[in-house]
Predict the structure.
Amino acid sequence: MSTVQRAALVFSDLDGSLLDHHSYRFDAALPAIEALQAANIPLILVSSKTRAEIMALREELANTHPFISENGAAVYIPVNYFATMPPAATQREGYWVYSTCPPRSHWVALLQQLEPEFPGSFDYFSRAGVDGIMQMTGLDEHRAAQANARDYSEPVRWLADEETKQRFVQRLEQAGASVQRGGRFMSVCADASKGRALLWLRERYQENHPAAVIHDLAVGDAENDRQMLEAAGSALLVRSPVHGFVSLSRAEPAFYSESFGPAGWAEGVLQWLENNGFTRKGS
Ligand SMILES: [Mg+2]
């Protein structure tokens, strides 16, 4: 008897979703992480964080799957994870890396150009250095260095008024930058998108499992997750302690968690597993 093969993927944001907004802990999500492992469902980490930051967390989670860094700027696939390297990727330090974005140096040069026009109005990581980043973020030295190890984007901290900020953002956008506004910083980068990265990576899974019907779930809490939440077959919006739910225009309904952060993550992921029959019976 031939059966339709099913494959499942979970794409998850980190800050405010899998990680607690305040403590950056993920303990409350562990039951659902373990359920995904038991069901052999890849958990793909998708974040504005850097490759180094995500790799550190991936190790803590014993996660061996691809991941997406810097808001979708790059997709990292462990070498030999698929049968062949995707044609558009390049091999680097144990990964097949796919990106369509210009490097960080491009954006740093642009910020340097804008400094005379906006004196004292902004600071950015590459000028602040690790000490400055520690001061700006409260991260310890090791984590500040990880946050500074960026490949495709430059975090900017705005120090002046809102009106000037709008003019600044406009100038960046005129120069081809896309400005992603996060909590404390804006990130200057190319027009990357977690949603496009998700679609690209999902296609790679499909190529490698041509007979399978892929069910994917995207999990996120903020505006920079919107495209990813629209692109996936299922969407889980994690309740945030600091802002409302993102508004989506997807046709299929989305799941809105009751709990905040990682507890809401576990709540929604376990529900999705059950709704789709991915939970092992008896376990
Ligand atoms: Mg988030």
In short: The mean pLDDT is 93. The pocket of magnesium ion is lined by residues 13, 15-17, 221-222 (CB under 6 Å). Residues 194-208 form the longest helix (15 residues).
